[in-house]
């Protein structure tokens, strides 16, 4: 993991141990971080050292172990600066400022093909970069999705007073923030693998860093509305994710999934077999299939995911989602224009890791597919679109 990263060694080390450890509870995660971070400064080690560290026997081998046994560990005096906790404990778990410790280690990134990928939960979990370029693209795409839905953030009939709302794979958090503004009396939680929360957050909105494919860290029946948008390419175990979503949704509450479909259409036969966008989409599907994820999100599989998760009263709809500004319709022309701009970095963002890591293409080959796809959106003779799917369902009372 560490070879390709230009990170301070101590950070790679502490995170490495966490990933290798067998962790069954949140407390164990915290303990591993406390252990790792407490021992950071004195160590000088190289990459080969990493392989000698074993989660089950942390004191038994390698250069690091020797150093640990020789030098007494000093206690950080800052631990006792908290005036409210003179008994050695404070209201947070175990008396440590664990958020600070964890948030340091959560910032684990990989630089590849000119992009920055977040890797704390594993390099290949989210194949999209999370750098500023991608954050800009996500925010631009958000405006585009609002246009497609007539300004609506969602379509499910959740009523005027939802109390708790969860956004899974929240990205920059823009959807969660706007939901918090729309429902000031609701508590809105955005969760994501990556710590990319917005700078300005309304008081009724917060962000968690977690892997939705492991466990949603929330009580049963605790959300009126759960939402996820464009996480399709990241999820391998939809069955597990849906059972978790169902578990945390209140009886009578809703789950809504919005996804760009991975199939291209043209109503005037301008989608040639060698169309560059078609080639890009086909390669994406091929790579996703190879790593066991759905090759594309469709009305059929989205409906199936909700139904097999237990949701009922499922409603599926879609809008056409033009890749360029060719439509006559004013709104769709604007959507196509935004896609033209978003596509300048978006095809690269979605494509590079899948094409190079999964399909084994060279950086040049992968770049060419992404670049030609982005250029095709400028082609006035290419009148192509994909579908934007919105599927929602209700948890029975
Ligand atoms: C294409 S972005 C979409 C972001 C946001 N939903 C939006 O529509 O603007 C996909 C997001 O899902 C997150 N993600 C992927 N897999 C995840 C998982 N297992 N748990 C939590 N978040 C995940 C990624 O980190 C990324 O931010």
From TrEMBL:
Transmembrane stretches, by residue range?
none
Which GO molecular-function terms appear in the entry? methyltransferase activity
Instruction: Tell me the keywords, alphabetical order.
Output: Methyltransferase, Transferase
Q: Does the keyword Methyltransferase apply?
A: yes
Write down the Gene3D superfamilies for this protein, in alphabetical order. Answer: Vaccinia Virus protein VP39
Q: What is an annotated GO biological process for this record, any one?
A: methylation
Its recorded name reads: S-adenosyl-L-methionine-dependent methyltransferase
- Organism whose genome encodes this protein: Sphaerosporella brunnea
């Amino acid at each position: 993991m560490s070879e390709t990263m230009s990170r301070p060694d101590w950070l790679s080390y502490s995170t490495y141990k966490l990933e290798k450890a067998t962790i069954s509870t949140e407390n164990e995660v915290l303990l591993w971080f406390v252990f790792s971070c407490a021992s950071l400064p004195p160590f000088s080690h190289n990459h080969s050292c990493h392989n000698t560290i074993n989660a089950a026997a942390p004191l038994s081998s390698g250069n690091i172990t020797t150093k640990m046994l020789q030098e007494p560990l000093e206690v950080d005096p800052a631990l006792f600066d908290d005036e409210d906790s003179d008994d050695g404990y404070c209201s947070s778990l175990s008396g440590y400022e664990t958020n600070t410790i964890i948030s340091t280690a959560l910032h684990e990134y990989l630089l590849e093909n000119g992009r920055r990928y977040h890797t704390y939960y594993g390099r290949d979990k989210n194949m999209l970069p999370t750098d500023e370029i991608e954050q800009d693209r996500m925010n631009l795409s958000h405006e585009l999705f609002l246009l497609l839905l007539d300004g609506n953030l969602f379509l499910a009939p959740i009523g005027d007073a939802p109390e708790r709302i969860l956004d899974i794979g929240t990205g920059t958090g823009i959807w969660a923030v706007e939901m918090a503004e729309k429902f000031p009396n609701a508590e809105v939680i955005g969760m994501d693998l990556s710590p990319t929360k917005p700078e300005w957050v309304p008081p009724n909105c917060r962000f968690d860093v977690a892997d939705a494919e492991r466990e949603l860290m929330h009580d049963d029946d605790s959300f009126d509305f759960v939402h996820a948008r464009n996480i399709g390419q990241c999820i391998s175990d939809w069955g597990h994710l849906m059972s978790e979503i169902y578990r945390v949704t209140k009886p009578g509450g809703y789950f809504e999934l919005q996804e760009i479909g991975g199939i291209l259409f043209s109503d005037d036969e301008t989608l040639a077999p060698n169309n560059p966008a078609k080639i890009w989409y086909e390669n994406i599907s091929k790579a996703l299939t190879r790593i066991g994820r759905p090759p594309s999100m469709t009305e059929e599989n989205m409906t199936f995911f909700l139904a097999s998760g237990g949701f009922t009263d499922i409603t599926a709809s879609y809008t056409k989602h033009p890749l360029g500004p060719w439509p006559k319709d004013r709104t769709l022309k604007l959507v196509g224009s935004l896609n033209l701009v978003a596509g300048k970095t978006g095809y690269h963002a979605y494509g590079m890791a899948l094409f190079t890591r999964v399909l084994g293409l060279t950086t040049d080959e992968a770049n060419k597919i992404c670049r030609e796809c982005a250029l095709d959106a400028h082609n006035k003779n290419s009148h192509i679109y994909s579908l934007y799917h919105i599927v929602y369902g209700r948890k029975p009372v």
